[in-house]
Amino acid sequence: MTRKIAFLGGGNMAASLVGGLVESGHPPAAIVVSEPVAEKRRDLAERFAVGVTADNREAAAASDVVVLAVKPQDMAEVVTGAAGAMRERGPLVVSIAAGTRIGRILEWLDYPAPVVRTMPNTPALLGCGATALFANEAVSDEQRDAAETILQSAGIALWVDDEGLLDAVTAVSGSGPAYYFLLMEHMIRTGERLGLTASQARALTLQTALGAARMALESGRTPEELRVGVTSPGGTTARALDLFREGGFGELVETALTGARDRSRELGG
Ligand SMILES: NC(=O)c1ccc[n+]([C@@H]2O[C@H](COP(=O)([O-])OP(=O)(O)OC[C@H]3O[C@@H](n4cnc5c(N)ncnc54)[C@H](OP(=O)(O)O)[C@@H]3O)[C@@H](O)[C@H]2O)c1
Q1: Which CATH number among 1.10.3430.10, 3.40.50.300, 3.30.2130.30, 1.10.3730.10 corresponds to the domain 174-268?
Q2: Ligand 1 mean position to 39 CA, how many Å?
Q3: Is ligand 1 within 6 A of the CB of residue 121?
Q4: Class level of CATH domain 5-169
């Protein structure tokens, strides 16, 4: 039987998940998006032929899965507002809001709901995301599959068995795209200083990032093996890597990611 899925919030992330679901064969008629902005509702209905409404309660009451896709600051209002309509049917609740703990969601719902909390990242908007999921004890195996299917429509999805690990996930993949952007910025800037044009430095840097990621994903070798494989003793790569190491690159990465993990804990309360 096809699951009915409601999205509360029809913004960027919801559009990406809805698009992925429809593309992978989920019937659009079994998806409804609740969104206050009329223009966004029209756009979602036109692009994906899904149902739209401005009424969170109506969408939530009729669904097997309710995806909370509003900004974290809007979560309390949205969840308390829809809770009464969800209590009887007791749908699976899937949250994509960064930093909102399951305990808070259950307080707002005020009944013992099955809840999956997820931490997607920005490339999910291109269908290339990395998402971690955590389920509370009320979630059945069938509901775990449902949550995984929804998040997989925007990239890879994997489970963690401790909600606290979502802070580590935030440090690695949640904030991770920005680390790569920073490295790209510095490589482009330095390429220009070394005489390349801006467009040459940019094209070479970005294609190198893509190529390196694809090699790491597709070669069956670890990043360490790949690094050793492209580093001839006494060569140019060896010189650059020695200088990275002397500058404390590894320690700096560890300090930065640990800082992000700690900040995620602070923000989650
Ligand atoms: N974008 C990312 O890369 C990313 C990554 C990880 C996690 N997330 C999480 O994903 C969630 C959604 O992010 P997003 O980027 O998709 O944000 P977004 O584009 O702002 O989407 C949120 C949508 O919810 C709507 N909304 C506001 N109040 C509402 C209400 N009371 N009822 C129903 N809908 C309401 C907003 O309408 P208005 O336009 O009127 O505000 C907006 O269209 C956030 O919790 C965020 O933490 C996003």
Answers
A1: 1.10.3730.10
A2: 15
A3: yes
A4: alpha beta
CB of 82 shorter than 6 A to ligand 1:
no
- Is the minimum distance from the CB of 131 to ligand 1 under 6 angstroms? no
* DSSP states along 42-84: HHHHHHH--EEES-HHHHHHT-SEEEE-S-GGGHHHHHHHHHH
Predicted confidence (pLDDT) per residue in 178-215, tens digit: 999 999 999 999 999 999 999 999 999 999 999 999 99
Query: How far away, in angstroms, is 12 Cα from ligand 1 center?
Result: 7
- Give the count of beta carbons closer than 10 Å to the beta carbon of residue 195: 8
Q: Ligand 1: does its nearest atom lie under 6 Å from the Cβ of 43? A: no
- 8 φ, ψ to 5°? -95, 110
Q: Where are the domains of the chain?
A: 5-169, 174-268
Say what the pTM is.
0.94
